[in-house]
Description:
There is one protein chain. By secondary structure, this protein is α+β, with helices and mostly antiparallel strands. The protein has a domain at 55-165: Up-down Bundle (Butyryl-CoA Dehydrogenase, subunit A, domain 3). It contains four helices and five strands; from the N terminus they run αββββααβα. The chain has a five-stranded antiparallel beta sheet. α2 (56-81) runs antiparallel to α3 and α3 (93-130) runs antiparallel to α4 (144-164). The longest helix has 38 residues, at 93-130. The chain is elongated and about 110 Å long. The mean pLDDT is 81.
Amino acid sequence: GIIISTAMPQWKMASYAGDNIVTAQALYEGLWMSCAMQSTGQIQCKVYDSLLKLESSLQATRALMVASILLGLVGVFVAVTGMKCMKCMEDDQVKKMRMAVFGGVIFIISGLAALVATSWYGNRVARAFYDPFTPVNTRFEFGSALFIGWAAASLAILGGSFLCCSCPRRETSYPPTRGYPKNASSTGKDYV
Length: 192
């Protein structure tokens, strides 16, 4: 979900909040390109030309989403190593469980990075929409990629939390139990 959200060009889409509802095209902007879809169904996209011309917040959003994807991939490999069904490290179950927990922590960090990126971008879109100085015909609303990103980030955090719940419990060090001594069979001579 995070990969799909990052690749989609629908991070924000043109708003039809003004008087002119009938338009011949729909405008989308994403992290990597901006697209225009004609009423005939034809889509034309233009990749952003220069990295240095982009706003710093868009560059930071890109970086957070790419970092989230990379962390998610690392988390998958680490968590798979810690799964009980894998043969890797099966001689030490405590280390195996710790690998699963470490994978869960990586998933949580990955989900938080994606959540910060999508929420930050969504906040910018909402602030620009409600800004009275933004012309009505250039206002944008949340695109579908933001909703996919929020859902994917939530699922990554939830999955990482579940993996962290597989943390090995500490063994309590109680003294070894001593059994009661067995009664010797009495012959009846011990009684007075």
